[in-house]
Structure formats: structure tokens, C-alpha cells
Design a protein that fits this description.
With 294 residues, the chain is mostly helical. The chain starts with a helix and ends with a helix. The structure holds a DNA duplex (20 and 20 nucleotides). This is Tyr recombinase domain-containing protein.
Length: 294
DNA sequence: ACTCTTCCTCATGGCATGTT
DNA sequence: AACATGCCATGAGGAAGAGT
């Protein structure tokens, strides 16, 4: 849209794009235009990816981004959006679990929205699925009153995923308890792609509504509003590491392809304070004894 | 209250480079 | 040769704002 507005100055139509002889220089001009309008680096990088695709499907040969002028112009913007490694705090997963337990006590009083929030939160904690993946999931009942969540992962190159939740001794935080409650209230939620059916609107909840429901629960925990729904993944993974899960366990659990790297970069929110404490601890006594002896 | 757009964040395959 | 690490391009995810 933005490129269209920029391109369609008087006397120039989108059709004229086909007549361009040197798409690269047009792209460069457009970047300069964006920079002059103080666009963010994110915006510029995203725009150029899209425009390159636009030219490609219009029949031009692929725009090279390596070793040419476009590369040098983009370098600054690409560098600016790289993830900065820093220590970020994360709320404790235990607080979320506590709220789930509290809500379970008064399960008949809470609203449909809050109920949905609890189920999404519980599912995300124990499956490490993303919100969008949870929202397009279907539920299947399995043996010994366990549940299977069947979804597909579009991010990356993974296909379908089936997560199996079994009964667990921590009943009121478990996905089995929450899913059973949710589905028993309305059996038609067992129908494929109908898991998040809302009786209020008579249709499945959207990702947007799911996000809002989760934020309602996060509010009950007094989690800072700046945290996103994905932070539940972070909190879950951070706790996994804290309780001593091995690299392999975290890998399998999170279904990351390059688990350790991705987790270190985006999910492990350890402040390292505990490790610093331990580094700083040394045996004072023996030092003193040595002095006395000498 | 809903949909669409914009901005920022997460994630990966494929390749390049380094080490044993 | 096998194993290990790092970089790049780019598309999906999520939040917030705009428009209706």
C-alpha cells in the first residue's frame, strides 16, 4: 500500500512498474524516500522484502541483495534490528500456576472468557505451543480420560503436532482438568476446529479474543502489562532450565530445531544473579586459618 | 466490537567458516 | 571427515493503532 502511494505520483500507474529497466535503482530510491520520512529500520527491511517479491512475481529477475549498492544501503537497517542480548527479568511461572489453582476453586463463578484464558494458559505452559497454534488446535479424547491436542505449526518448517496430556497429580493446574471442564460445558467443542467455540457469539474465538482472555488471567497475577502472551513460553522454558532440565529435554519439549541457540537468544530470561552469588561465595574460614597457621 | 494495517519479535534452513 | 558454530534472508506470530 505504501509503495503504491509512493509510486503512483501524477502520470505514473502501477502498470508502469512493468516498464522499469532497473528495478534495483527504483528500490534504492524508495529506501531513500523511506529514510527521509524517518521510517523505522524494521519498516524499511520489511518493505524491501515485500517489494523484492513484488518485482519477482512481476517477472523481473530476482533482485540481488548481496554485494551491491542495495546491500550497503540496507546493511545499517538490517544491523539496527538485530536482537540485542541482554538480561531480562521474567515473572515466575509459579505465580501463574497459583492463579490457575485459585480459579479452579471457584470454577462455576468465572466467566466464559476467563475460563478460556485459564485453559489457554494451562495448555501453553505444558505444551509450549504458541497462541496461534493453540487457537487453531482441535481436541481429541484419549484413553484414561486424557486429552490430545492436535495442531499444526506453520512457523519454521514443522508440520503437525499432537500433544498428549495425561492425568497429573497437580490436578487444578493440569491441562486435563481444564480441557475436561471446558469441553464438558459444551460438547460441540469436540468438533474439529471448534475447540474455542464461545456460547456468547456462537462461533469459535479468534486469536485476538484468545489473546485478550490470556491477558485477563495475566492481570490477575499482576504481571506487568508490557509482557506478551509469548512470555508464558519464556516463563515455562526458564523454569524448565531452573529445575535442571537438560538441553535435550528442553529441545524435545519446545520442538525447536536449534534449541539451545533459540532458547538462549529469546527464551531463557535468567538474570544470572544466582550464578553471580555463587561465584562470589568462597570459603573465608580456610583463608583465615591459613593466616593464623603461618 | 470488529477487521485491517503497521510495527516489532521470534525462528529456521541453508550456507560459510572454524575445530578436532 | 566429522563435528561445531555463526551468519543471512525472510516469513509467521503478537500487540497496538486506525478505521468503521
Amino acid at each position: 500500500g505504501q509503495f503504491g502511494t509512493y509510486w503512483q505520483r501524477p502520470g505514473r500507474t502501477l502498470r508502469d512498474l512493468r516498464l522499469i529497466e532497473d528495478p534495483e535503482s527504483k528500490v534504492v530510491k524508495y529506501i531513500i524516500h523511506l529514510q527521509q520520512n524517518e521510517s523505522t529500520s524494521n519498516h524499511i527491511v520489511e518493505n524491501i522484502a515485500i517489494i523484492a517479491l513484488l518485482f519477482k512475481v512481476s517477472g523481473f529477475k530476482e533482485i540481488e541483495t548481496q554485494g551491491n549498492i542495495l546491500y550497503w544501503i540496507m546493511k545499517k537497517n538490517v544491523a539496527a534490528i538485530k536482537k540485542v542480548q541482554k538480561v531480562e527479568p521474567i515473572y515466575s511461572l509459579d505465580n501463574l500456576l497459583k492463579v490457575l489453582e485459585n480459579q479452579a476453586q471457584k470454577i462455576d463463578e468465572i466467566s466464559e472468557n476467563a475460563l478460556m484464558g485459564c485453559i489457554i494458559v494451562s495448555t501453553m505452559i505444558f505444551s509450549v505451543l504458541r497462541l496461534a497454534e493453540v487457537m487453531r488446535a482441535s481436541a481429541v479424547q484419549a484413553e484414561y480420560s486424557s486429552w490430545m491436542i492436535d495442531t499444526s505449526i506453520w512457523k519454521g518448517d514443522d508440520g503437525g503436532v499432537i500433544v498428549h496430556f495425561r492425568k497429573c497429580k497437580h490436578r487444578y493446574t493440569s491441562s486435563v482438568f481444564w480441557l475436561s471442564t471446558w469441553i464438558n460445558k459444551c460438547r460441540s467443542r469436540l468438533i474439529q476446529n471448534n475447540l474455542w467455540y464461545l456460547t456468547k457469539t456462537h462461533k469459535p474465538a479468534t486469536v485476538n479474543q484468545g489473546s485478550k482472555a490470556v491477558h485477563e488471567i495475566m492481570k490477575l497475577v499482576n504481571i506487568d502489562l508490557s509482557y506478551t502472551v509469548t512470555s508464558i513460553r519464556s516463563s515455562s522454558i526458564t523454569k524448565q532450565i531452573a529445575i535442571g532440565a537438560t538441553k535435550q529435554q528442553v529441545n524435545r519439549f519446545t520442538r525447536h530445531k536449534k534449541g539451545p541457540a533459540t532458547v538462549a537468544r529469546f527464551y531463557n530470561k535468567n538474570t544470572n544473579d544466582e550464578l553471580r552469588e555463587r561465584l562470589a561465595t568462597f570459603k573465608r574460614k580456610s583463608l583465615i586459618n591459613k593466616k593464623v597457621n603461618s
